[in-house]
Each structure stands twice: as C-alpha cells, then as structure tokens.
Design brief:
heterodimer, A: 248 residues, mainly alpha, 10 helices, B: 267 residues, alpha/beta, 6-stranded mixed beta sheet, 4-stranded antiparallel beta sheet, 10 strands, 42% helix, 24% strand
C-alpha cells in the first residue's frame, strides 16, 4: 500500500508545484462557462428552456475532468519519453500497482479541478438544487475521474510521442465532449445526434451529475450508474492491459 | 574463489526475424568490475535490458545473484541497481524526494531510510542540494544522483549503461573514482557499457566484446591485446569488431527492432 501512496503523492506534489497546469486546465472551462453560460443562456431562456447556466455546469465539470484525466496521461507519456518510467519498471513492484497508484494521483487532481469549477460556477450564479445531493455527486465525480485517468494512462501507454497524443486529443476528446449531452439537451436534438450521444459514455457521466446537481435527466440515474460502472471497469482493464505491455 | 553473481547461459533474443543477441554466455564474479563493449547495434543494450528484467530472453538462462531473471524477477530486481543510459529522474521532484520514492519502491525499512539517503547524498556530494528540484541540476549532478539512487537499496550488482555519456572529463573521473571505491569497499559487482575504450581499460578488471549479437572475446586488457597481437585495447577492439561504421545498418536495425518490439509482448 505504501508504494501506491508514494506514487499518488508524487502526482499531487507535481501538480501543486505547477501553477501553469492548474491555470491551464481551469482556463478553458471558465471560458466556456462565461461564453456559453451567458452568451447562449439568453437565447436558451428566450426559447423557454429555463436557466442555461444551471444546465451547463454539470457538462462543464465533466469536460474539465475529461481534459484533466486525459492530459494527466501526458505525465505517463513524459515518464516514458524522459526515462523515469524505466526506474519504476525495473523496481520490484508490480506494474499494476505502479499504474493504479499513479492513476489515483491523476484522479485526485481531476477531482480537485472539478470541484474548483463547481465553486467558480457558484460565484457565477450556479446553485445546486439540493445541497445534500452534492455529496453523491462528489462520489460520482470521483468514480468518473478514476475512469478518465485510467483511460488517459491507457492511451499514453499506446502512444509514443506527443504529436500522437495531440492527435488523440483532437480525434477523441473533442468528439467525446461535443457529441455528448454536455452542451445541449438530448430531448430536442436531431435523432442522429441523439443516437450518437447515447452511445457516448460521457453523456451518462454528465447526465448523472446533472440529475444530482440540478434535478434534470435524460437517461435516468439508474442507467447512468450502470454505464458509468461499466465504463470505469473497462477503462481500468484497458489501462492495466496496455500499461503491462509497455516496452522500454 | 569468488562467487558468480551474473551468469548468462546460451542467451538468445529475437525480435521477429532479427536476432539481436545470438547465443551468448558469460559469467561475472562477485566484486568484479566488468565492461561490456561493442559497436552500436551489437546487442549491448538488449543484453542489459534482459539482465535488468526489462526484456525477456527468447531462450537461455540469465541469473543475478543466483536468481533467475524470468522466474524470480522480483528477487533478481532487488539484487541490482541501475544507472540508465538516458536520465531517469523525476525532474519535478527534489533530489531527496527522488531518493525517498526509490526507498519506497524497494521497501527499504523506514527507520534506515533517512540515514542511508543522507550517507549516499553525502558520498556523491549532493547533500547540500538535497531540497533542490532535479531540473535545476547539471548533467553531472544528475548522474551522481542517479548513482546514489541506484545504490540506495544496497544492491549486490550495479549496472551502468554508458554512464559517462555527455559528461565532462572532471565529472567522468569523479564518477569512476566513486565506482571503484564502491567496488573496493563494499565488494559490489559493477557491470558497465561504454564507448570510451580508455575508460574500460582504466577501470574494468575484465572485458567482454560483443559484435553482431555474439561475444567475440572475453578477458583482461592484456589478454585481449595478446590474443589479437595488438598494443592497446582500442586496437584490439577494432581488430575484433572491424573498422567499418555501423551507423547505417544500426539505424535500419533500430527501426526494424522498434517495429518488432511493438509486435512482441514483453510481460
């Protein structure tokens, strides 16, 4: 257990030492909240759909942890490229422990960023529908962050260079975000988009948070939880599998 | 008679069609300083990677301090320390934190950690800089820290893969002085690769030369020069491995090697 703690601590220490990283991952969600929350919010209200900021915040929190989780994978890639991973891989510790300890660190960072975005949203006028339900929402956020950190680690295990990772970002993260229920209600979009979004696990992550934070849901919490659980199991298996195959 | 601590027997490593290491056998005795030389692409790195459990041999047997590197991997891993060819420190952590992390990886009892870390950082003259981030260190300081880290779990064998690459003469001399001291005082076995033949001549007690995946000669410098009727180790080395430059073949091999690696699951 100690080794997992030490690897977790390594990630968290590195994060707090890098002010630019904290700002970098917060900047984009803040921009989206301001531009979309206020920009589109007015039209949304005019269309009689209610308060857009309330609708948007769970989506932006998910986007934050999605970015943070996948970009945390960059650290694994940097470890691989700049040699530190060799030190870990020749030590008498199983690769699974190395991966999981590090991924827990990555997930912790994502959770902190998600919470930070929630706090900033409150400053902008967001209010949870029931304060007690913020606690289970926090629980779901943790699970989602673990899944995404593992996913990021799995991707980093496959990719060999930073350009490749950037490609993954464009091909994977942006569609996962834009083709989910993060920005628009699925009830009123064209059927094709609704079908695509309903095959996107990110939609269910957003939906669960949206249900608990603002009492709006498209799929229903039960279905959300099933998809989140399956996605998390798949992401952990993917990461363990790929990390165990890294060749130095 | 000193015990054998590194034993390679009929070791072969193939990557698809390419045979990187072709049936090599050698032994290194306890406390010996052993140099492993060869041109680029000869099989040095593959051999070191197999010895340090990063690659699994296709066939043959490798033992470190009596432990089979494939079957008793964790015991074998505890028996050696390694200074990699490329830097392998976490630059965002301090020197002390890098040492702490290593101590945890090797389950060094917490009561002993502080003293061992201090002793080693003093040995490599970095104790005053223990709280500095590694990213502020020069190349020589990083190398010294890596050596200190490689010794923290008191391994019986220390692997040094081209440890002086890119270091100035002063740092090189200092580093080899440490290494010799470790070998003399602690009876540690040192296994190193280098392209600087003067280093091998000065430091190594015994030398193996590998070329095209096969060991072409083993012995002390006088034995190798006698065997090849030459005067210096460099002449002997060139006579054994040829004068032609391997870069082009090495690069192609490197590419094929990397592609083969991708398709070959390690563990």
């Amino acid at each position: 257990m100690e080794i997992m703690y030490v690897l977790w601590l390594r990630q968290v220490r590195r994060y707090f030492r890098s002010g630019s990283r904290i700002l970098g991952t917060i900047g984009q969600p803040l921009l989206l909240l301001l531009a979309l929350g206020y920009g589109i919010g007015a039209i949304y209200k005019k269309a009689g759909a209610g308060n857009y900021l309330q609708f948007l915040v769970p989506g932006i929190i998910t986007q934050t942890v999605l970015l943070s989780g996948i970009f945390w994978g960059l650290i694994i890639l940097m470890d691989k490229r700049f040699g530190f991973l060799s030190e870990l891989l020749v030590s008498p510790v199983s690769r699974t422990k190395i991966l999981l300890g590090s991924a827990m660190g990555g997930a912790t960072i994502s959770v902190m960023q998600g919470v930070l975005v929630l706090l900033v949203s409150m400053l902008l006028g967001f209010r949870p529908y029931n304060w007690l339900l913020v606690i289970p929402a926090f629980g779901i956020l943790i699970v989602v962050c673990v899944a995404l950190a593992c996913f990021g680690a799995g991707i980093a295990s496959i990719v060999d260079d930073f350009q490749g990772f950037q490609g993954i970002n464009n091909l994977l993260i942006l569609p996962l975000f834009f083709l989910s229920s993060a920005l628009y209600p699925l009830d009123s979009v064209p059927q094709a988009l609704r079908i695509i979004s309903s095959y996107n696990p990110v939609s269910y992550m957003v939906d669960a948070l949206r249900y608990l934070l603002v009492n709006q849901t498209h799929f229903g919490l039960r279905k959300d939880l099933v998809v989140i659980t399956l996605t998390t199991v798949a992401a952990i298996s993917f990461a363990v599998n790929r990390f165990n195959r890294i060749q130095m | 008679m000193a015990k054998t601590v590194i034993a390679a027997k009929d070791v072969v490593k193939r990557f698809g069609e390419i045979t990187a290491v072709d049936n090599i056998s050698f032994e290194v005795k306890e406390g010996e300083i052993f140099a492993f030389l060869g041109p680029n692409g000869a099989g040095k790195s593959t051999t070191i990677k197999m010895l340090t459990t990063m690659l699994r041999p296709t066939s043959g047997e490798l033992r470190l301090a009596g432990h089979d590197v494939t079957r008793e991997r964790d015991s074998a891993r505890k028996a050696f320390g390694i200074v990699f060819q490329d830097p392998s420190l976490d630059e965002e952590l301090s020197a002390y934190e890098n040492m702490e992390l290593h101590a945890a990886l090797y389950s060094i009892p917490s009561g002993e950690r502080e003293k061992r870390v201090q002793d080693l950082l003093e040995l490599v003259e970095l104790w005053q800089r223990k709280d500095s981030m590694v990213k502020t260190f020069s190349g020589g300081m990083r190398r010294r820290l890596e050596i200190a880290r490689g010794l923290l779990h008191e391994p019986r064998i220390l692997f040094l893969d081209e440890p002086t690459l890119g270091l100035d003469t002063q740092t090189r001399n200092l580093m080899w002085a440490y290494v010799k001291r470790l070998s003399d005082e602690k009876g540690m076995t040192i296994f190193f690769t280098t392209h600087y033949l003067d280093e091998a001549e000065d430091v190594a007690e015994r030398i193996a030369i590998i070329d095209n995946g096969q060991i072409v000669a083993t012995g002390t410098t006088p034995e190798l020069t006698k065997q090849t009727s030459t005067k210096t180790l460099e002449e002997a080395y060139l006579k054994l491995t040829g004068e032609s430059i391997r870069d082009e073949a090495g690069n192609n091999d490197g590419l094929n090697f990397k592609m083969a690696l991708r398709n070959n699951r390690l563990r």
